[in-house]
Amino acid sequence: MRTPPGRTAVVVDAALAAVFALVCLLYALIGGWADVVVVLAFAAALAVRRVSPGWSLVIAWGAAVTQMLLLRDVQPADLAVFGVLYATSAYGTRTVKWCGLGSAGVGAVVATVYLALVKPAFDAATIPGDSEMGRLLWTGILFAASLTALVLAWTVGLLVRTVRQSREQQRRAELDRREREHAEYRYVVEQERNRIARDMHDVVAHSLAVVIAQADGARFAAASRPEQASAALGTIAGVARSALGDVRLLLAELRHREGGAPQPAVDDLDALIAQVRDAGLDVRFVERGERTPLGAGHQIAVYRIVQEGLTNALRHGDAAQPVELQLDWTDGGLDIRLENAMRADAAAHPAAEAVAFRHGIPGMRERAQLAGGTFDAQAGDDGRFRVHATIPAKAAA
Fold first, then answer.
1. Residues forming beta bridges with residue 340, ordered by sequence position
2. Minimal CA–CA distance to 90: which of 159, 149, 42, 151?
3. How far is 12 from 48, CA to CA, in rounded Å?
4. Residue 293: which of 337, 335, 329, 326 has the closest Cα?
5. How far is CA 249 from CA 189, 196, 244, 259, 327, in A?
6. What is the dihedral of CA 296, 301, 302, 304, to 10 degrees?
7. Cβ-count burial of 177 within 10 angstroms (0-12 exposed, 13-18 middle, 19+ buried)?
8. Could you give the count of Cα atoms lying within 13 Å of 27 in the half-sphere of its Cβ?
């Protein structure tokens, strides 16, 4: 598809055509009105050579035929033919381009016949050569020169067209590359924001669950066991302070994309379990097998899945019943199983409790899948909620 020329190109072509007409008119006025008509026609062909190369070729042919019908001599205005042929291959459509090449061949034949046969026959003009062989040789030279000059003008235009298209393709490729980089950058930013949002949810939800549990315990123990209430308040302060620090780091990372965000690891599970136990949840933790090295992202996934599972058990489960947490290490990775009893009201009305009980399930599933593992969470008919996740082994990068 041809790109239309800009206004500047149109003005430049019109100005050049006007200058060409003025120069050629100095010679055409000597020959009379016929030469003036031919000059103006060729100038018009040059003026529209980029706006409409097809019409430029038609006008040039009209001017050339008019010149030959009037038996006019070769004049400077005929040089416009080269500019027109150049334009057909440089700016024309596929059809116009090949019409230009055909015009170069036909034009060479017509010009040779006109100059070597028609003009001498009707205008008593002479051509070099005293014999038939000499005249034949001159005709051959005239045809070869005409064909070479016309085809050369068309070829130069084709080369310019090829270079321009190559540069346009490179420009488009560069634009596509930049757009692809922008898309990849936006994707990475979105993924990072989603990760931070998941971390924010895990930190806030877990901390609030512990704080609420401790606050309820302190409220009931305040009158009869003040020392236990004081310990609960201390736990609340510690959890809130830790959560505040984590939230600040997450917000700093979100705002500035720098600074260290919370990066929990498998070794931090003991502190997490102890914190939940302090909140009043009986966590029975069993770990089997020798720990397999996991990458940083995989360790974060393990920690967050366990954290969210324990948080759901603390918020929505029966705190009077123990929570079973089991980690099985194999050469292939880690198998996580967490099971807790649902509250009586949740078991009796599972539909009403479903949204709250499964609030963090999508995040747990996404973390497991991003780590290349699997995840499953469901409430059983026996009133117990089970979480099962697998995280494949991957050496730390």
1. 385
2. 159
3. 11
4. 329
5. 17, 10, 9, 7, 29
6. 120
7. exposed
8. 14
Residue 304: how many other CB atoms lie within 10 Å: 22
- What does the alpha-carbon distance between residue 352 and residue 236 come to, in Å, rounded to a whole number? 30
Separation CA 143–CA 111 (nearest Å): 8
Q: What angle do CA 306, 352, 382 make, to 5 degrees?
A: 60
Calpha distance 85→111 (Å, rounded): 15
Closest CA to 235 of 247, 245, 243: 243
- The list of the chain residues with pLDDT below 70 reads 1-6, 123-131, 185, 188-189, 191-193, 195-212, 214, 216-262, 345-359, 394-397
Token pair, residue 383, equals 């009133």
Helix locations, the chain, DSSP H: 7-31, 33-47, 53-69, 80-91, 94-113, 119-123, 132-221, 226-256, 269-278, 296-316, 344-348, 350-357, 361-370
Each residue's pLDDT tens digit, 166-225: 999 999 989 888 888 888 767 766 765 676 666 666 666 666 666 667 676 666 666 666
Token pair of 13, please? 């072509």
In whole angstroms, give the CA distance from residue 309 to residue 345.
19
Report which DSSP code applies to 319: T
